[in-house]
Amino acid sequence: MRIRIGFIGVGGIAQDHIRVLKKMEDTEIVSLFDPNADNARRAAEATGAQIMDSADHVLDKQRIDLVFICTPQFARGDLEIVAARRGIPFFVEKPLGVDAEVVRQKEKLIRETGIIHTVGYVLRYYDTVQQAKRYLQGRRPHLIQGVRIGGSHPAKWWKQLDRSGGHLVDTATHQVDMIRYVGGEIREVQAVFGRVSFEQIEPDSTIPDAGAMNFVMDSGAVGSLTESCLSPFHAGSDIKFFGADFFVHLSQNGSQLTLIDNEQSLTVTAERDPGYEQCRTLVDAVKSGNPSLILCDYADALRTLEVTLAANKSEQNRIKP
């Protein structure tokens, strides 16, 4: 059985999905739409897909078996809902949006359709992340530290808070999601953000250039996540879990794992391509009608979004002496 795939949005992140899908003999990208004509043309030349006149025309159940929705969060509209109601399984990029209530309404409607779907929290598919998750089952860290430092997205919309949500909502969301996925639910957040550099070099932007979020887990553990999208000379991401008798460190975006306890001290590097595993799992779910191996659904991704948006709200409500 060959899975026919449509794409809505074929910019940078979509190219990663196209790369791995082209490796699969049982998939075919048949249609696509992007408002950027150059993006659409290049993707069509690379895949042999037909360029459609609109996103709605891609969502044709007679033509496709699965759709990848890779539009920016501010421009997504109701594409997930339309796909679900038409009976088309879908992949949608993270984050799910910039308004938690809007996304909650979408989640309810998607859940009611029962459609197979997934959200692009790709780091969950690292074998190292899976190993860390298994190790921490039954163990209780008391402290969690996270870091995500890097550069800015080149698009102008990304630097507007009402469109992207900022670096935490859009990018460091991967680290927030990994903390949730490996360590359990976050029940409380407090955050502060700053604009020391952006105020000088890009005053028209509205996102912070750095932030720090403190949080409390359902387990009682406490933690912090620091992030910056304006670091041209250093980049990296780490999550550390500290326990009374263990230490777990996921570094390099989760691709390297260190485990230390009284019986072992080991460091392992991921052997799997998480992007391939994510797409392979979704395609297999569509073929079999069984979504049980999919690692992130809309409801789960909503919880990650709620944490990051709560951090933004905390900054807005900051108490000043």
UniProtKB/TrEMBL annotation:
SUPFAM superfamilies: Glyceraldehyde-3-phosphate dehydrogenase-like, C-terminal domain, NAD(P)-binding Rossmann-fold domains. Pfam families: GFO_IDH_MocA, GFO_IDH_MocA_C3. Residues 153-243 form the GFO/IDH/MocA-like oxidoreductase domain. This is Putative dehydrogenase. Coiled coil: none annotated. It comes from the Bacteria. It comes from Cohnella phaseoli. InterPro entries: Gfo/Idh/MocA-like_OxRdtase_N, Gfo/Idh/MocA_Oxidoreductase, GFO_IDH_MocA-like_dom, NAD(P)-bd_dom_sf. Residues 3-121 form the Gfo/Idh/MocA-like oxidoreductase N-terminal domain. The lineage of its organism: Bacteria, Bacillati, Bacillota, Bacilli, Bacillales. GO terms for molecular function: nucleotide binding.
